[in-house]
Amino acid sequence: MTLIPQYDPEKFRAIGKNGSGDFETKGLNDFFIVELSVQKNQLQTPFLPHRLTVNDFVFVSKGELIKTVCSDSYSISESTLMILPPYKIRTMETFSDDIEGYYCHFPDELLSRDTGFKNLMEILNYLDLRNDHRIPVPVQVKENILFLLERMKELYKQNEISLLSSYLQTFLAEIKAIIQELPPIVLNANETTAFHFRKKVTQHINTVHSIREYAEMLNVSPNHLNKSVKMAVGKTASAIISETLTMEAKSLLSNTDLSIADIAFSLGIEDPSYFARFFKKHTGNSPNQYRKRIDLSC
To answer: What range(s) does the HTH araC/xylS-type domain occupy (predicted)?
Structure first.
């Protein structure tokens, strides 16, 4: 069962503030690009947690936006790019009033297998190891990045998919060149354990909630797992499990009409009263209170 809403590009629609404008009325194909100033005016924020079936990125040329990825919140400021692969939980939280830049999403199929897709994988693998998908764009590269994004926007409007694909691949080549100038990622033993632990939590959060079971998956003791994760990321293993489970619960409460008991069951929790206590402990609201707050804000 997919708990966080998962959007295919053609079905994805912004929740607009006024229900008008290109961002709301133009159907999204597999590729989509829009200026952040337009997105700010027509997207209701915070956008509810969701997954995409395509890659996406934001490039901020001016101002700042806040984006949550999984359970971590990131500030994306001037001359910074954030690129994410499909299926990571994400949500746009806030935009500054002076925001400028671009949002774009695109499928792997737009890329050539020999160069474009390979470049994308190298970029994503590097960022995954670093556990931070933000990339600082040097001043000397910024204008070229903006030119490529502006051309992609125009080609998208003209439905020039072949040319658009070429510009996208050039864009990724530029980003790969930036990555190659950054320090190589060398994980120590604690960071390696934390890296694999986070991946396991993402894969199994609907059914596995105990440190002991994750430790067994990684062939380490629960004590070793907890110490390694704490040393690597400054949080305990149990805190990461709880944060991820809480985000799943928030999404179900926000995006479905399931009963509290059904939501608890969907998350692998058999006792609805335990789920209610867990949720209130980590959010300050009962599940019903949280759902009412969401309804009032819409």
So the answer is: 195-293
Question: What tokens were used for 241?
Answer: 């499990």
Q: For the packed helices 222-233 and 237-255, what is the interaxial angle rounded to 10 degrees? A: 80
Q: Kindly tell me if the per-residue pLDDT of 24 is higher than 50.
A: no
Rounded CA separation 217/68 (Å): 27
The per-residue pLDDT for 27 is 32
Distance, in Å, from the CA atom of 153 to the CA atom of 265, rounded to the nearest integer, reads: 44
* CATH 1.10.10.60-classified regions of the chain: 189-297
Q: Quick check: 145 and 59 in contact, CB under 8 A?
A: yes
What is the distance in angstroms between the CA of the first residue and the CA of the last residue of the chain? 26
- Residue 15 has what pLDDT? 43
Specify the fold of 6-181.
Answer: Jelly Rolls (2.60.120)
- pLDDT 10s digits, 181-193: 998 888 999 999 9
Q: Which of 235, 273, 290, 30 is nearest to 265 (CA)?
A: 273
Q: 214 with 200: CB under 8 angstroms?
A: yes
Whole-number Å distance between alpha carbons of 217 and 213: 6
